[in-house]
Amino acid sequence: MNTKKGLIFIAIAIIAITALILYFHISSTTVSENSVEKAIQEAVLYLEKNQNEDGSIAIDNDERLKVWDTAVALYGLIVSGYADSLVIDKAVKFLMKAKRMDGSYYYRLSDNLNQYCTETTSAVLIDFSLLGMDQADTLSFLLEKQYPEGYWEFGYTWIKKAEDRRFPSATGYALSALGYCGYPKDENIEKGLKYLIDTQLEDGSWGYNPVVYQVKYYAIYRNLVAFQIYGIEDKEVIRKAVNLVYREQNKDGYWEDKVSKNATKEGITIAALNILLVAGEDPRNESIQRGIKWLLEHQRKDGSWPGGYFIAQPTKKHEDIYTTSMAIVALKRYQLALHGEKPPFFIKQ
Q: Is the Cβ–Cβ distance between 205 and 248 less than 8 Å?
């Protein structure tokens, strides 16, 4: 009898010790919500400080991708919940002035309608849909630019190779914008989704675009947003992409892309976290926790994260605006997911 009691006591002790170890492990790896909140606020201030007199948000008033920078910065400011309304109003006015006669946008200020930018047009459409602004002309323009095969091209005539012009991120971005606007899942949407499914590579990515960011996580993120908004039957498409991200995480918590020499660990880590959170992964899992922790530890004193540079320009254009805005988005998604909103797209129902 004493032996039996002794064994029971030992078993209880082992369970208690295991529980304590697990508790302290979780406590040491779980990121505090206060630290996330603080990081978001500091990032918002960084974006606001980079607003120019004309309402644009671009480092040193850089003209090269001013419309794109403003559109992506505005997205982060809107979803943050902390942005100054005057900053948002000025950015909106700038973007309204940047719109061309056909409802389209280019990545910089331009009236040349022979050049358009599908991704900038989509980014602005998403911003304005979140603000409740009707942009029927921009929506119509985007729908008209879909090809019969289901894809969208970037819209830049200076891209010579057809496969570069129709890199799948453009289709993912366009579909996402239509989804944010509440556009129904009709035959054209189905064609676009099928194009993305058919072009996914065996490793779960959509490859690299040598013209734009040259980071495979960029297209994965854009396409997964479209899949999750509209829904697809083949869940393995999403799973393959998510598994790729999990496999490539560094033991210290960050992600990197050894093929791209232009992107930063910070930028790729932000993209990876957005992918996992958009896919509906548990924000408390060890991979996401390590990624969030690493990201917070590498925020710069001015509130930003370094983004590498945009390789399509003859001189290096740093992407700190884009990276910092997408960091806000990732951290906000993380917060919302912790409280049960999965996957969080910030779409007003």
A: no
Looking at the fold, whether 160 and 290 belong to one and the same domain comes out as: yes
Residue 285: inside a domain, yes or no? yes
pLDDT at residue 200 in the model = 98
Q: Say which CATH number the domain at 264 has.
A: 1.50.10.20
Same domain, 211 and 258: yes
Q: Pick left, alpha or beta for residue 132 (phi over 0 → left; psi -120 to 50 → alpha; otherwise beta).
A: left
What is the rounded distance in angstroms from the CA atom of residue 193 to the CA atom of residue 150?
8
pLDDT of residue 24: 44
What's the pLDDT tens digit per position in 152-195?
Answer: 999 988 888 888 899 999 999 999 999 999 999 999 999 999 99
Residue written as token pair 């556009």: 183
Residues 6+ apart with CB under 8 A from 35: 296
On whether the CB atoms of residues 100 and 149 are closer than 8 A, the answer is: no
Helix axis angle for 118-130 and 66-80, nearest 10°, is: 30
- Pairwise CA distance, residues 335 & 344, whole Å: 9
Asked whether residue 114 falls in the same domain as residue 198, the answer is: yes
Segment 276-300, tens digit of pLDDT: 999 999 999 999 999 999 999 999 9
Distance CA 269, CA 275 (A): 10
Same domain, 12 and 45: no
- Token pair, residue 53, equals 């007199």
269 C-beta neighbours (distance < 10 Å), count: 27
* Structural domain boundaries, residue 270: 33-338
Q: Is residue 138 part of a domain?
A: yes
Report how far residue 261's alpha carbon sits from residue 309's, in angstroms, rounded to the nearest whole number. 9
Domain contains 4: yes
Contact in structure between 141 and 104 (CB atoms under 8 Å): yes
Is 117 in contact with 107 (CB distance < 8 Å)? Answer: yes
Structural domain count of the chain:
2
Check whether 340 has a pLDDT greater than 90.
no
The answer to whether residue 133 is domain-embedded is yes
157/174 same-domain check? yes
For the entire predicted model, the pTM comes to 0.89
